[in-house]
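Re: beginner question about structure tokens

> Can someone show what the tokenized structure looks like for a real chain? I only ever see the sequence side.

Sure, here's an example I had lying around. Input first:
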Amino acid sequence: MKITFIGAGNVAQQLAPALKRCEYSIHEICNRNSSKGKKLAKQVSASYVNDVSKVEDTGGIVIIAVKDDAIAEVIKKLPALKNSLVIHTSGATDISALKKKFRNCGVIWQVQTIKARTKIDFKKVPLVIEANNSSSKQKLKKLSYALSNKVYSLNSGQRRVLHLGAVFVNNFPNHLYYLSQELLKKHKMPFELFGPLILSTAENGMEDPKTAQTGPAKRNDKKTMKAHLELLPDKNYRALYKFLSKSIVNLYN
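And the corresponding structure tokens:
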């Protein structure tokens, strides 16, 4: 089966080589940035196309792997592609964006942060899929199970909730890591001191986040929390500390 990628960013740079390793034929890479597109095309032995309107209708799968805000523009420029299955890779974009134009369409979203230079073992990455008809779903399931051992069929509403949850477990904690790193820098301490703590927190939280909670807010230790607030460098830090601590206090007390 021939696979075409629209986009040559982080997702395409991980997914295209992974599918090639699964013995799928990568037919075309379409990307506005020619150097980036040609580089990926060469890597996966595909043709390079710089115009979305010239993407071929091979009867295979066309994967729209662009940022969420660009999906509508890509759909508008694509030909009707009556024989191909057209899918996007967004966690937050409804399948209806594709249904308006394409007879066969779907979604494949990896529940994982994807960066081009990070080595990813897709076998361990949960994949969430959705399709508009049974034949498209079968084709999408076959592709997904070639990549991963963990494939889940969810509708667009469920996927939006999952995407929101991912922001809470991934994006927000990572921002807190950054704030903590900056705090330690000001006091000439290395952030690597928190390495084991971050790993153990993640492992314990996987079992039961509520039981795994520790710290002064859970104990409602007002003296310690007051001392922490005095150490924080500005009002934004203090507001965030107060908000999160209050949420924890309310849950456990």
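Each token stands for a local structural state, so reading them left to right follows the chain. The mean pLDDT is 95.
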